[in-house]
Amino acid sequence: MKHDEAGAAPDPVDVRIGARLAELRGEHGWSLGELAERSGISRSTLSRTERGETSPTASLLNRLCAVYGRTMSQLLSEVEAEPQPVVRAAEQPVWEDRASGFVRRSVSPPHGGLRGELVEGRLVAGADLAYDRPPVPGLEQHIWVLAGALAVTAEDVEHHLVRGDCLRLRVWGPTRFRCPGPEDARYVLAVVRP
């Protein structure tokens, strides 16, 4: 088994994500170069990600999801076991973008025949996540802040949300999630595919 630069074994979820990304590229018949052109991500980064040698960031996964026409939850659910009607707290997939301080819990992962899903997001104070495009144009999102404060930018408008506030929107372009602090932000993201 390969190890990362620090000598630790690769994260099994990162390995499964990489393998699924390689499968998707193969299903589309694209070379690494073609995918690099479509996504704006370097060939070397794509290669390392597909081999599970690096932990992908939320921004990188978002760009790949956009190219493949999937939400991030769809992609992550494809590397987990088949979804069940009841998702127990202990079985909800958690994914962490260590570089940005973002933790994502898939409370209600995508399920056949359903268009909606629920995600719990946590951002550390000072975290700033920018997505250059939605994974699926016209994606409906409802963002309900449970703790802390969250600044969400969509269509060049920044919305300042505090505990209890809910922002509803359709995502057509770049978005940004920022936790101004001083405490961490915790929120629920309801996602409905068009």
Describe the structure.
The structure is a single chain. With 194 residues, the chain is α+β, with helices and mostly antiparallel strands. It contains five helices and ten strands, in the order αααααββββββββββ. The strands form two sheets. Strands 1-2-3-10-5-8 form a six-stranded antiparallel β-sheet, with no helix packed on it. A four-stranded antiparallel β-sheet has the order 4-9-6-7. A hairpin with a 2-residue loop joins strand 6 (149-154) and strand 7. The longest helix has 17 residues, at 12-28. The chain is globular.
Strand order of the largest sheet: 1-2-3-10-5-8
Helix-and-strand structural type: alpha+beta
Fraction in beta strands: 25-35%
Q: Uncertain regions: pLDDT < 50 for 5+ in a row? A: 1-5
How big is the Rg? 17 Å
Mean pLDDT: 88
Biggest sheet, open or closed, and with what strands and sense?
Answer: 6 strands, antiparallel
> What global shape is seen?
globular
The string of secondary-structure elements, in order, is: HHHHHEEEEEEEEEE
Cα(first) to Cα(last) distance is 41 Å
Q: Helical percent range? A: 25-40%
Number of strands: 10
- How many helices? 5
